[in-house]
Every structure is written in structure tokens, then in C-alpha cells.
Amino acid sequence: MKVGLVKLKDLKQVALVVLVLGLLAIPLAAYAEKPTSIKFVIGNWAPPVLQSFFEKFEKETGIKVEVDDYEFRNLLDIIEVRQKAKDETVDLFFVDAPLVPSYAVRGFMKALDGDFTEQEIGATWPEAAVGVGYWDGTLWAPPINNSSQVLFYNKELFKEAGLAYPSVEVEKRWTWKQVVEAAKKIVDPDRGIWGFSFDQVNRYYQLQALPESAGGGSGVGKDGLSVKGYLTNDGWIKAFTFYHDLYERWKVSPRGPGPVELPPMFGAGKIGLFVGGLWNIPDFVEAGVDFAVAPHPYFADGVPATPANSWHIGVWSHSQKPEAAVELLRYLTMDPEVSIYWLEKHGQFPSDYAALDYIMEEPDYAEQPWIAYRIAAYEAAHTAVIRARTPAFLEFEEILLDTFEDIRNGADPKASLQIAESRIERAMARYQF
Amino acid sequence: MTERQARYRAAYLFICPIIALLVIFRLYPVASAFWESLYQLQFQGRVMEKIYVGLRNFQDLWGEPIFWKSLWVTLKFNLIVNPLQIGLALILALLLNLHKNVRTIYMLPLGVSLPIASIIWRIILDPNQGIANGLLKLVGITPQPFFTSADQALWSVIIIATWKGLAFWMIFLVAGLQNIPSTCYEAARIDGANLWQEVVHISIPLLRRIILFVLVVDTSVNFVLFAPMYIITRGGPTFSTNVLMYEAYRSGFTYQDWGRAMAIAIILLVIVLVIVGIQFKAFQTREY
Amino acid sequence: MNIGRSKKTLLRASWWLAILFGLIFTILPFVWILVSSPRPNYIIFRYTTPLSWRTFTPVPATWQPYIAIFQKGYGRALVNTTFVALTTVLCGIVINSMAGFVFAKLEFPAKTFLFVLVILTFLVPFEATAIPLFILIRRIGWYDSYHALIVPGLANGIVVLMYRQFFLGIPTALMESARVDGASWWRIYWDIFLPMSKPAHICAALIIFFFQWESFLWPLMAAPGEKYRVIQVAITYLSTEYGLLWNEQFAAAVVAASIPLVLIFRFQKYYVRGMSGTEIKG
């Protein structure tokens, strides 16, 4: 491209500068912020479920609901990022139940004193479900979902091994010993078949049931600011020696696959016994594996314990429209239509009395595998354990995750828990006044 | 205007857009981020507040065994991965300089992003279900624990990093090789040089400029690489893959301890700067 | 004579064996996602062990994942990412090569300082600057827009360094004689250096393109909505609350891989040997 004019060269330089400046200077009128719209930061699984309710809400109140949805693994990080940026465009957001203390001390939510009456709270939710949304005497975030876990078993593999099925009655639930015995008869490395696995194999949410059942407690002291001695008591050591042995001694569980790979493995018929969440049921049905459910196992000389809790909804602390946000919050968490719809259409286990009663009355839930919901309703009322209440929950959970993985890969349980204790103590230091 | 002044003017005009963009979108955020390393979040009664702590974050790191372990893992990782990647890329570039089709197949890893590559390699290297152990079994080798063993985990990550990196760096080296005029080789051949001599005495020296580039950038990329650790090993087993950048990422994005995260980032930067400086000095070329 | 020939064949054979091994290593992950993607989700892991013909053959096969991802807006993500990547490449090549040219061929005050500054910008990992940059973008009003995705990615220290190294290899004499003939600096840059540097442009395009193509954290923060979503972010949305839709993610990865690969194959022809050699004689 040969052009001989000096002027053209200058023109090109100018054009380039203008281009760059232009890119920098175009004002993008961000959002024409409608006075009657609120922004909800939620997980990407929720919009398909809640869309119809958002529309209903808009029709009745005139407030439009806009959604910024994120995949689960990113949701928590993004909440942190947007809070750090003091984002004022968000009004409501999903709060993971155990993070209520952490968010409360860091000022992520607006307190909900006065937005719900005592009577309303008592009539809508059992104490175990809503108690988690309190911290320091204040209600911060009521629940919208709950969760529970049951024992899934592969009927075909059981028949092959000549084993009797576990009972579906909660009084006759299997002990861990019985689970291991059955698993040993099923495991077959040549065919790639495993005896037993947990669902979220390395998460505190899943494994807390073990030390709790063995009498070891939640791992954190009463004030939520210390773990010294709480992770290395007899209950915890017993629980995680058992966990360690599943992989190292009895070799009935697989090392390597993570929480996203294990449920599909059960669905593919490669695991005999599986302790996992109710949400797996639709996937297992679709996968065509011949399975049934039984209650969560426990340690024979201990008490039954099951994981619980799920998502709550909180009002964003920098929100400019808190009243509108609270209106939507009350509607979504208290209206039984929402929880029953979520239950019926998407298998989401609910937290409110109305939906729980529905489960006990609807005849569909008397059959396998949907009877799991009735089992879960029992567990929610009697055996559910609440995750450790501490502002340092993120650090607590992360460090335990690494610890559980190390134990799973063969590290000595006692030594690993001791290391975890000192690491978590250190992390908690900055939360102490 | 003198010639010198004309040059100065041209230089500044040409460089203006890039410096402006870098200052606004890179350097200002960097300064702002590094400023964070002087603060900590502390519980002050009912809520957490950010308070100035000076160099306390750095002091805390100094006394933390995990920091030193992570530093060691980072150095170990880079001492292996950088020469490995560049050495293999160089060999491949020299071997495949003329074989366009084979070369193209080696470029396939470029299409897959590092997170997805990590997920796939985790499946392939699964100790029980993975294809790798399946293939090893066929030739009679015992199955390996790969990511589940503290001895092999880092090497497994090196495999992933090399898988992706080879394709990328090979391209630049091939570009550099293509750029060497054939006259150089012809002259050497007339003088009686064989293939090996051609490579050692012509190709490699004339590739110096490109090799420096590949070295510097590969170093800077690998020092902050942490996607496979984030997705697969989470720094384990027992911290054997806990590189500094992963530690910083966790401190920041997961624990919201930005003071510690930025302190680690600054330390990382100093280390990389020193190494890159040495690389520049070692590969200094005169212009001609 | 005989010994020499068999030695040569042995050398050749081991050379080809090494290449073959390298090839298997290189394409194995590809083959895996290629054959895994047309499976129903619950079968993905059924045949990984024990190793059999079923491991590498999708039976039953279904195109459902490929259809599903496009129903979920993946097509839009492809268009977005391609647009963002190509725009950044075109503008980026010009901006960065200008700087590379200056660092390679001109002397001026503060040159070393500015060069170190440029190097510094790619030594600092992006994650460290993510949040301040996020706050800045929000303040400018570029949140959720193409501007947020393109502009911060234009100035790339790596590309500047690459151009500098490349231009260092072009003889200064060329430049000086043109200057003596009265050419302006812009003409020297635009009409002499740029056309000679096709391999460098390909390399720059590669760096910038892949930087944008593989970008995840920044687009997630700055442009999360469906309108401006990019590929890597879109892939993570192919999931449920508790698990990944493996077959869809693999299908998406296959589609995401094909575009840059097609571009690379087509641009390989610009690696023409000795091209810059002939230019020098001019």
C-alpha cells in the first residue's frame, strides 16, 4: 500500500488517536434504572423455576424482577466481588445457609427485624430450618430451600451379591457396619464396580454427619470462634478413621472422582451403596439404574445424624430499594405455592411446614423412590444437624475439604485433623475481638 | 526539527496509545491492588473493618510454614516445567519444520481451554477409572495413583501444563525458524556442514531473539498458573501442588483476605521479575 | 555399508515412534471429548473402565447435547466471543506493533523505564487486578458491554515484546536508507516493517485471539448477562445446582475448539520460508 502523501500519514495518526479516545469516551448509559425493578443475584438453576412467580409478582405489585444468575461454583465468589465493589444495583441475593454468620459480621445483608412477625416465623418454618438464618439475635435471611440425604442402593448389584435390601423404616435404619459389610460383598475392581460412596465426598456438608453420629459435635466451639480440641475429640477421630478405612483398608470406595463425577457413576450402575442428596432422584430415574432408597446410616453406639439446610435469601446491604426487596423476599419464602411448585416440578426438598405437610399427605410420596421425601421430612424434624455456626465458615470448610481429601488419599486421620485444627485456629484469629 | 527530535516525537506518538491503555487498565488496578497488602480485615465488635497494618501481612507470611512450602512447590514446578516445555517445543519445531501436516496435529491442544483440559485429564488420569491406567495395564505396567499421590500429583499437573504449552510455544519457534533465510543454510551446506551442525550453529543462535521471548513469557505464565490446581488437586495431596498463586487466589477470592493475597502476589512478582531480568541479560543480542 | 543403513533405519524408526507417541498423547483428550459428547449424560462414565471398544465408541449415540447447547444460547456466546476476539486482534495488532517497533528501532528518553513498565504489566497475574479493574469499569459505565471485554485486552505486553524481538531482526539499514530517502516514520512502520512481518502478525493474532477465547474470570465479572456472555462462561452454565451436564460441556468444548483450529489451519500457509529473506534484497 504505497501512498506518498505526508498529510495522509498525519491523518492516520490522528485517526488512530481518535479511535482510541473514542473507545474510551463513549458513555454507555448503563441501565435506565426503572424505579420499579429490583435485581436478584441467584444461582443459574433457579430462574427456570421461579420465572413464573416473578411474573406473578410483577403483575400484582408492578415491580419487575431482574436476575443476574451464576453457576453455583461462581456464585459465592461473585457475591464477594460485588460486595467488595459496593455494588448498589443488587437488591436481593441467595445466601448459602452456613454463610449467614460470615455475611452478617461483614455487613453483606440488611437485618430483617420487623419485616417478619414472630408469629409468621413460627407458623411458616420449623425451628431447625429458620434458626440457621439468625445470627447474634437478629434474623438476616429466611430459608427458601432445604436439603436432606438418604441411602441409595443398587438393587441389581444387591441381588447379584445375594444381599437383603436395607429397610425403608427409620427405626430399622442400617448402621455403618452393615453398610461396609454389604459394600465388601459388592466391590469388584475388575468390573469397575465399587461398594460404597458418598455424594459430596469431600465436603463438610456431607461428612459432618459422621462425627455428629459418633458424638463428636460440629467441630466448632459454642462461640463459633475456636476449634481447639473440637476437631480432635474421640468422635471426630472415630468418624474419620472410618472414612479413611473406606479407601485405605476396606477399599470399597474410589479415590479420585469428585462430587460432580460420583452421582453419574451411581447412575451408571458402578456403585452399590450411595449416601447422597434427594436431588439425585430425577437423574437416577432418567439413567435407568434399578435403585431404591433407605434412611441415612449411623454409628451403632451413637445417634442418627443427617445433613441439612440449603439456600436462604437475604437483602443486599447496598440495596437502594430495600422495601421492594423485602416484599419479594416475603412472597418467595412464605407462599406455599412457591415451595410446593419447586418440590413437585423439580424435586426440591422444602423447608416450610405447608410443603412438608403436603409431602406427608400426597399418596405419590408413599412409593419408592419418592418415599425418600417422607424419610427426609422425618430427618429434618429429628436428626438434622446444623453446620457449624461461625463467621469463619468459608475458611473452616475450605481447610476441612483439603483435610478430608488428604485422609481419603491415605493420610493419617489424627495427624491430618490436628493440622486442620491449627490451620483453622489461625484463620479464626482475625474474627476475634 | 533535528533528526533526533523527530525520532523522539515519533517514538512518543507511537507509544502513546499503548501506554495510555496500560496505565488505565493494568497499572492503576495493579497499584490499587498492591495497596491492599498493607491492610487487614479485623473484627471490631459487631462487624469486620479494614485497618492499616503496614507490613504485618508480609511478617505473617514469613512465619507461616504453608507459605514456605508453597514457595518451594512453585519453584520446583517452574524449574521443571519451563525447560521441559521449551526444550520439547524446540525439538518439535526443529523436527517438524517441514512437516506441515504432522505439525498441525500437534497444534490441536490450542483449541481446548486450560480448565476444560484439566477436567479431561483428571478423568484420563483417574487412578481407577482412567484411560491412562487402562492403557498402562495393557502393556503390563501397574496402575499409577497420579493426582491422588503426593509424589505424582505435581508431575500430573506438569503433564497438563506441557500438553497445552507445547502446542503454543512450538508455533512461535516455527515462526522464528521460518524467518531464517534459506541462504544461511545453503552457505553452511556448501561449507560441508551436516544436519546436526546446521541446527546447533545456525538455527539455534539465530533463534535467540525468539527463544528469549518464549522463555520470558513462558516463565511468567507458568509462575502464575493455577487452574489445574484449582480444578483438580486443590493444592493437595498434602500441599504437594499448592503453588503460591493458588494460595493467593484462595486467600483473596475465597477467604476475602485480600491483604494476604496481595502480599503473596507482590512476592511472586519480585521473584518473576528477578528471573526475567536474568533471562534478558543472558540472551542479550546485538542489533544488526 | 549395511551397518550404516540399518542404523539409519533404526534412527528413523525411533524418531517416528517418538512422534507417534507424542501424537497419541496430544490427541487423546480430544478423542475423549469427541466420542463422549454424543452420549446421554448418565452413560458418560459407564465405559471408562474396563477398557473396551465401547470406551471409544459412543453407543448409544445422540445429537441431543449438541442441539441442547444451542438452545441454551451457546450460539450467541460463540458469536460474542468471535466478535470480541477478532476486534481485539485487529486493533491489537496495530497498537502493539507500533510500540514494538519503537522499542526495537528508536532511541528516546525513558525508553528503558517504559519498556520495563510494559514487561511488568504481563508479569502481574490478572486475578490480582480483577477487582480494582471491575470497580473501574463500573465507574466508567461499561459494565455488561463489549467495551468492557475488548478495551482492557487491547494493550498486551506480551505482544509488544514479541514484536520487539521480531523487529530487532529486521536490519536497521533498511530503515536508515528509507529515512535518508525522506520517508516519514509512519511510512517506514506501515509500508516497510509491517508487510515484512506476516509471521509476527500471525503470532500476535494467535496470542490475542486465544487470550480472548479462553478468557473466563474477567467476562464472568464484567459481562455476565446472556447478551454479552462469552464461551468459557457459557460452558460453566451447562450445569445443574449439584452437577455438570457433562455431555453438553464436552459438546460445547468440541464446538469451541473447532473455530480456532480452523483458523490456524488456514493461516499456516503464511509461514512461508525465506519470505523475509527475499525482502531484504529489496
Report the β-strand fraction of chain B as a percent range: under 5%
CATH architecture of the largest domain in chain B: Orthogonal Bundle
CATH class of the largest domain in chain B: Mainly Alpha
Task: List the total number of helices of chain B.
Answer: 13
Characterize the biggest β-sheet of chain A: 4 strands, mixed
Low-confidence stretches of chain B: none
Residue fraction in strands of chain A: 5-15%
Can you describe what's shown?
The complex is a heterotrimer of chains A (433), B (288) and C (282). Helix content of chain A is 46%, strand content 12%. In chain A, strand 4 (134-135) and strand 5 form a beta hairpin. Chain A folds into 2 domains: 37-146 and 309-369, D-Maltodextrin-Binding Protein, domain 2; 149-307 and 386-431, 3-Layer(aba) Sandwich (D-Maltodextrin-Binding Protein, domain 2), CATH 3.40.190. Chain A contains 19 helices and 10 strands. Chain A has a 4-stranded mixed beta sheet with strand order 2-1-3-10. Chain A has a 4-stranded mixed beta sheet with strand order 7-8-6-9, sandwiched between helices. A two-stranded antiparallel sheet of chain A has the order 4-5. Chain B has 288 residues and is mainly alpha-helical. Chain B has 2 domains: 1-54, no CATH class; 58-282, MetI-like (MetI-like fold). In chain B, helix 3 (65-95) packs parallel to helix 7 (153-178), helix 5 (114-124) packs parallel to helix 11 (227-233) and helix 7 packs antiparallel against helix 10. The model of chain B has no long low-confidence stretch (mean pLDDT 87). Chain C has helices at residues 2-36, 53-56, 64-71, 74-105, 111-123, 126-140, 146-150, 157-168, 172-180, 185-196, 198-213, 217-222, 231-236, 246-267, 275-281. Chain C folds into 2 domains: 2-65, no CATH class; 72-237, Orthogonal Bundle (MetI-like fold). The chains are: A alpha/beta (433), B mainly alpha (288), C mainly alpha (282). The interface between A and B is large, with 37 and 41 residues.
